[in-house]
Structure formats: C-alpha cells, structure tokens
Amino acid sequence: MSAAKRVGILISGRGSNMVSLLEAMRAGEVPGEAALVVSDRPDAPGLAKAASFGVATAVVPRREYRGRPREEHDRAVHERLEAAGVEIVCLAGYMRILSPWFVERWQGRMINIHPALLPSFPGLHGQRQALEHGARIAGCTVHFVDAEVDHGPIIAQAAVPVLPGDTEETLAARILEQEHRIYPLALRLLCQGRLTIEGRRVLVRDEQIDLPRSLVVPDPSS
Ligand code: GAR
C-alpha cells in the first residue's frame, strides 16, 4: 500500500468537519495523516480540538494582513503548509476567499465542503438560501477548489429533505450530519488516488453503485 498522504486542514471556526476528517484518519478509514491545521482566526474553537488530537496547529491571523493584497496572507499560509510537508489541503469552514496564486499552487490537491447542492446556493449561508428559495431537497457538496468560490469539479454530494417547519438551524444540523459523512469519503478517494478530473467532471475509479434511485419530497405516501 502507498504511504499515507500528508493532509493540511484550513479552518476559521468550530471545526466540526475538521474533526470528522481527523477521526477518519485516526481510525485508518482514510489513508492520510494530519500534518497541520491552520486557522486565519486566533479564536477559532477548532484549534483546541485539533490540539486534542495531537495535531500541530498554526494561526495566520487575517487581521495582520488587513489592507494588504490577499495573496500575502495566502503566501504565509502556503509557507506553513510547505514546511509541514502537506500534500493535500482540505478547506473545512475556511471563510476566506483564496487568491488565484494560492488556488493554482494547490490545483487538483485542494478540496472544499459547502452546505448546499452546488451549483445551487454558493457563498455564505447555503442552508438559509435553500430555505428562502423554497427548495424541497437540500444537501452538501465536496468539490475540488478552482478560482471561483464554491465552484470546482464535484467529488461527492449528499441530499436531505427540507421538512415542514424547518428553521435554518434544523436544516443546517441535518445537512451537517451528511457533511461529516461525505468529507471523509471524498478525502479517502483523493488519498487513494482514485479521482481523475475531466473538465468539470470527476471520475471515481472502481466506483461501486448500490444507491437508492431517488429522494422525493413531499413524501409520495402523503
Ligand atoms: C460547514 O457547514 C461548511 O460546509 C461551511 O461552513 C461550516 C463550517 O462548520 N462552509 C461554507 O459555507 C463554505 N462556503 P465547521 O467549522 O463545523 O466544519
């Protein structure tokens, strides 16, 4: 078997997706090892969680780069990742738009999770956007990162129903549960070298298909 990939995780906040990745790597379900967690916010609660896994952490405070080109901050982050020998970058609630320079450096090796079924509802508050739009099916997406926000080739998606009476919080919680399933799945496939990008499509080598045919909302038995 090939060596575990060195994975860097970028966060800005609570880091629940980061934890799902760390747990999956620790359990040996993903052939990767967490090399470094970087936050752009010194107060991100995810930093302490990363430390509790024994993972090295770094903070590159965005505040210190205020008024300077975005790329300068990204270069500082990149240096930390390089120094830690990172091969794959996972954005896990990293709420910062990346410079084209950074995106290019990590092209094909950087993935992101977004709480909506892309290409619907990119940007902030994907769950709120789905609710306000009246969508009956919502979900989450893991995708390769390209120069546009929440836009690159899609690796994995999970769909959930939007239920009557849902609030942004209840819908977000339902989606988050699925985020924690598909992010480790996507990272596993990437670490296993099973993903190929062809244009906008991602091909998965040896993909097993044993899936329900559809999710229909409202429930047809209503
Ligand atoms: C997650 O829901 C993630 O999908 C979202 O931020 C949250 C971070 O939570 N990301 C985006 O909206 C990216 N556009 P976490 O810190 O607990 O993983």
Describe the structure.
The chain has 222 residues and is an alpha/beta fold. It folds into 2 domains: 1-106, Formyl transferase, N-terminal domain (Rossmann fold, 3-Layer(aba) Sandwich), CATH 3.40.50; 112-206, Formyl transferase, N-terminal domain (Rossmann fold, 3-Layer(aba) Sandwich), CATH 3.40.50. It has helices at residues 16-26, 46-52, 70-83, 100-105, 126-133, 168-191, and strands spanning 5-11, 32-39, 57-59, 88-91, 110-114, 137-144, 154-161, 195-198, 201-204. It has a 7-stranded mixed β-sheet, with helices on both faces. Helix 1 packs parallel to helix 6. The structure holds glycinamide ribonucleotide. The site of glycinamide ribonucleotide has 16 residues, from helix 1, strand 5 and helix 6. Residues 11, 13-17, 46, 92-93, 113-115, 126, 150, 176, 179 line the site of glycinamide ribonucleotide.
CATH superfamily of the largest domain: Formyl transferase, N-terminal domain
Note the beta-strand portion: 15-25%
Shape: globular
The count of β-strands is: 9
* Sheet of most strands: 7 strands, mixed
Count of DSSP-assigned helices? 6
**Which compounds are bound in this model?**
glycinamide ribonucleotide
Which fold does the CATH topology of the largest domain refer to? Rossmann fold
CATH architecture of the largest domain: 3-Layer(aba) Sandwich
User: Roughly what is the average pLDDT, rounded to an integer?
Assistant: 97
What integer value in Å does the Rg equal? 17 Å
Question: Could you state the order of secondary-structure elements as H and E?
Answer: EHEHEHEHEHEEHEE
Helix/strand class: alpha/beta
The neighbouring-strand order within the major sheet is: 3-2-1-4-5-6-7
Distance separating the two termini: 50 Å
Name of the top-level CATH class of the largest domain:
Alpha Beta
What helical percentage do the residues reach?
A: 25-40%
